[in-house]
Design brief:
Elements lengths: L7 E7 L6 H13 L4 E6 L14 H12 L5 E3 L2 H5 L5 H12 L4 E7 H4 L8 H7 L1 E5 L14 E2 L9 H9 L10 H9 L6
Parallel strand pairs: 1-2, 1-4, 2-3, 4-5, 5-6
């Protein structure tokens, strides 16, 4: 166990299907604005509230994430949810991270404004809010209406990019180069992902 006292770690979960420039933008801004030591990206195996679309495997999503964060020393990946398999519940992940990094480590759970409304319906939402500081980040088209006490809001310039949009563009054989890191773009093209 890493017992370094008073570390501040950002948590960014999702399907990353595929990872794109807005994910990296949010992570970089959160590092700076929240004075974090690092950001851990946590790809979900099977998210409870989302379907994983496309001719894609968990291995593909992990490879793309590794390629995307390669040059940022303060970015890391946790494969806890992938290895655990089954549905990915945030409460289990946060308990695991608390045990790994120690009680004195501050965990900052980053969620998009689009996910905020559904937060009270998450598994053991009350327990989650006690274990981690939730931080809501803006998403284009979603107003930040926070009815959950104790949640931080950070102001980050919005980038109108979504994995859904990227998958649609790929199916329509439209360019996506400006939306994803170069290495991720090459991986998608080499493996002919999201063509069906």
């Amino acid at each position: 166990m890493d017992k370094s006292a008073n570390k501040r770690i950002g948590i960014l979960g999702g399907t990353f299907n595929p990872v794109h420039n807005a994910h990296l933008h949010i992570a970089k801004q959160a590092l700076k604005k929240l004075h974090l030591d690092k950001i851990i990206f946590i790809p979900a195996y099977i998210p409870p509230h989302k379907k994983i679309y496309g001719n894609i495997t968990a291995t593909d999503r992990i490879h793309m994430l590794r390629l995307a964060i390669k040059s940022e020393k303060r970015f890391a990946i946790s494969l806890y949810e992938i290895r655990k398999k089954g549905k990915s519940y945030s409460i289990k992940t946060i308990r695991f991270l608390k045990k790994k990094y120690g009680k004195r480590t501050g965990l900052f759970f980053l969620i998009g404004a689009d996910s905020l409304k559904g937060l009270p319906g998450w598994k053991d939402a009350g327990g989650l809010l006690k274990l981690a500081q939730f931080v809501v980040v803006p998403r284009p088209g979603f107003a930040v209406k926070n009815r959950v006490p104790g949640i931080l809001k950070i102001d980050i310039p919005k980038k109108d990019i979504s994995s859904t949009k990227i998958r649609r563009l790929l199916r329509e054989k439209e360019p996506i180069k400006r939306f994803v890191p170069k290495r991720v773009y090459r991986y998608i093209k080499e493996h002919k992902l999201y063509t069906t």
